[in-house]
Design a protein that fits this description.
The chain has about 325 residues and is of the alpha/beta class. About 40% of the residues lie in helices and about 15% in strands. It has one domain (about 5-335): Luciferase-like domain (TIM Barrel), CATH 3.20.20. It has 11 helices and 9 strands. α7 (about 195-205) links the parallel β6 (about 180-185) and β7 (about 215-225).
């Protein structure tokens, strides 16, 4: 099986708070490191009651400081919300503190709604300059030139691998043109996956960072002792998506009994489409599900997202996923 990594949103559960979420994220990262997961990524979102990873760079430092070998990074930083120089300085600082362990995934979505985007002082046109901003950011990580007027200090000359994140053909095309690894958000937006992978692989241009295409796909995994228990755990994520679409976002809710019966037919269809890259069941079912995704897509790596209400059950799910994929302790230091 190919390498597995972890995507964490530092979930705030119903009845919990951000401080508990941060402790749980570090505990999960240490758990993933022991199990042999390759990366532990955190995502930038704003004004979402169930997500505590808004100050992504700060949380990356917290997690990297509490672990020793697993790669820690952003999946991702929404670059239009920031100046490239500031992100270069932040990740230059992280790479200086934790050499050889920091990844920087970049996205062009706001990670929020339009009202929040305005509060972030984000221009509606900010995403239009995303390709130029990525190039500017990459330039800050190169060794500084003698006549260079603006430098990232720290940042210049440091090895910070950059990824392009996406859920459309735009990200695939950009990653291919720049010769960067490509991570696709198939765990919640799988519609364009096959077209995006074909485009990325067919148009890929080798770069100093990467000789050949490299793809990582997001997949929701809910693993438990029984299929019925795994499906019960899965209802927390399903509730989150339904409540978001109904305009009633909130903390991550506990599992709900007979949740499917409460859904309108169009909501069932929506969940089936958005969450089609979800593997739910026992260790053996997860093994078959992950293997099927790899065989169908040719992915080089899978990033596991498990929005599970109970922290102990979340740890157990990641354990069963690691056993299903037969990953071994030690791969966490691999780039």
């Amino acid at each position: 099986m190919i390498p597995l990594s972890v995507l964490d949103l530092a979930p705030i559960v119903e009845g919990g708070d951000a401080a508990t979420s941060f402790r749980n994220s570090l505990d999960l990262a240490r758990h993933a490191e022991r199990l042999g997961y390759r990366r532990f990524w955190l995502a930038e979102h704003h004004n979402i009651p169930s997500v505590a990873s808004a100050a992504t760079s700060v949380l990356i430092a917290h997690v990297a400081g509490g672990t020793s070998t697993i790669r820690v990074g952003a999946g991702g930083i929404m670059l239009p919300n920031h100046s490239p120089l500031v992100i270069a300085e932040q990740f230059g600082t992280l790479a200086s503190l934790f050499p050889g362990r920091i990844d920087l995934g970049l996205g062009r979505a706001p990670g929020s709604d339009q009202v929040t985007a305005r509060a972030l002082r984000r221009s509606p046109e900010a995403a239009d300059s995303f390709p130029q901003d990525v190039l500017e950011l990459m330039a800050y990580f190169r060794p500084a030139e003698p006549e260079q007027g603006v430098r990232a200090i720290p940042g210049a000359g440091l090895d910070v691998p950059i990824w392009i994140l996406g859920s459309s053909l735009f990200g695939a095309q950009l990653a291919a043109a720049f010769g960067l690894p490509f991570a696709f958000a198939s765990h919640f937006a799988p519609t364009m996956l096959e077209q995006a992978l074909d485009l990325y692989r067919s148009r890929f241009q080798p770069s100093e960072q990467l000789e050949r295409p490299y793809t990582m796909l997001g997949v929701n995994v809910f693993a438990a002792e029984s299929e019925s228990e795994a499906r019960r755990l899965f209802t927390s994520l399903q509730q989150a998506f339904i409540n978001l679409r109904r305009g009633r976002p909130g903390p991550l809710k506990p599992p709900a009994e007979d949740f499917d019966a409460s859904l309108a037919p169009f909501e069932r269809v929506m969940l089936a489409d958005m969450l089609s890259f979800s593997v739910v069941g026992t260790r053996e079912q997860v093994r078959a599900g992950l293997a099927g995704i790899v065989a169908h897509t040719g992915a080089d790596e899978l990033m596991v997202a498990s929005q599970i209400y109970d922290h102990a059950a979340r740890l157990e799910s990641y354990t069963r996923a690691a056993e299903a994929a037969e990953i071994s302790v030690g791969v966490g230091v691999t780039r």
